[in-house]
Design a protein that fits this description.
By secondary structure, the protein is of the alpha/beta class. The protein contains seven helices and 15 strands. A hairpin with a 2-residue loop joins strand 9 and strand 10. Helix 5 packs parallel to helix 6. InterPro entries: Cytidine_deaminase-like, FdhD.
Length: about 270
């Protein structure tokens, strides 16, 4: 199933005084309900691609699993919109302080649930990885050039696992949280260690995004977009380097600038 709705939507496009009928490519939106050990756990509104990565990453982000090996079986049925997951150690609904939820594609979940879940699995990062200013700019350029879906629709987010010199793989979704969960799921399923890796991201870095990065064990996140105050406070506490507004030859380093080579030492003083 494509993450771009085909063949497109009949649209009236206006530019200045010119008007025309066009077939416009738009991003597909898909509800996926997770059935965990026979119980309805959540419905995620997402893009219909790399769904197994999304399910695994989402469960890890929620603190349900720590490794992919904890999953006994996983089935994703795009025709019915259900994913059935069985764990080696089955869970009961009362193990998680929530009822079944709708997880929107953009805004994440209720802060009450988010903090209860994340308090168990967020961790301080001690990564010794370093990057140069030029490497940051080149990685963001590669991310933005790697998404034909964004070029066609303008309606998706991209996240990539990378080394300082190259993108290892990219995941795309209408939801920025979903894109990161897909990266997390791919790391877990592929047994890819976080050591020596960073994340390149198109979306805003909120506190929820920052905590996902912490759970992944990543020490550096590069974002094209803005950050929030709670995100940078958490990043400072958890030892994560946050770089935002990375566009062209511009970037803002908010936390842990010691991991970025080429910065004037005078600017790093408190």
């Amino acid at each position: 199933m494509s993450i771009v709705d085909e063949p497109g939507w009949k649209t009236i496009k206006i530019k200045g005084t010119h008007q025309e009928n066009v077939s416009e490519a738009i991003a597909a939106e898909f509800p996926l309900t997770l059935m965990l050990d026979g119980h309805e756990f959540a419905t995620i509104v997402c893009s219909p691609g790399q769904l197994e990565d999304l399910v695994v990453g989402f469960l890890a982000s929620e603190g349900v699993i720590r490794t992919a090996a904890e999953i006994k079986e996983i089935q994703v049925d795009v025709y019915t919109g259900f994913s059935h997951i069985a764990l080696h150690k089955p869970v009961q609904p009362d193990q998680f302080d929530h009822s079944s939820r709708m997880i929107g594609s953009c805004c994440g979940k209720s802060r009450q649930f988010y903090f209860k879940s994340d308090a168990r699995v967020a961790k301080t990062i001690t990564s010794e990885l370093e990057v140069t200013v030029d490497q940051c700019m080149q990685l963001m350029k590669r991310l933005m050039n790697s998404s034909p879906e964004f070029e066609r629709t303008g309606g998706v987010h991209n996240a990539a696992l990378a080394t300082p010199t190259d993108l290892l793989f990219t995941r795309t979704d209408i939801g920025r949280h979903n894109a990161l969960d897909k990266v997390f799921g791919a790391m877990l399923q592929g047994n890819i260690p976080a050591r020596g890796k960073l994340v390149v991201f198109s979306g805003r870095v909120s506190s929820e995004v920052l905590l996902k990065i912490s759970k992944m064990g990543i020490g550096i996140i590069l974002s094209k977009s803005a950050v929030t105050d709670l995100a940078v406070k958490l990043a400072d506490e958890l030892g994560i380097t946050v770089i935002g507004f990375l566009r062209g030859d511009r970037m803002n380093i908010y936390t842990r600038p010691d991991r970025v080579l080429g910065i004037d030492p005078y600017l790093q003083r408190d």
